[in-house]
Amino acid sequence: MAEILGLGCTHAPMILFPPEHWKNVRKGLSSRIPNYQAPEELLTDLGDDDGLAQDKINHQRIMDAFAVIREKLHAWKPDAVILIGDDQSENFKRENLPTFCMYTGSQVDGYPFHAASNNNNVWKIQPETKFSFNCPAEFATDLVKFVIRDGFDMSSSTELAGWEWGLPHAHINPLMYLDQDAELPILPLFVNCLGEEAGDGYPPRPTAKRCYELGQAIRRFLDTRTERVAVIASSSWSHFFLTEKFGRSAFDVEFDKKNLELIRTGQGSKLAELTPEELQESGDHEFLNWMITLGVVGDRPAEIIDALDAQSQVSFKVFAAWE
Question: Domains of the chain (ranges plus CATH)?
Answer without folding.
Answer: 3-322 (3.40.830.10)
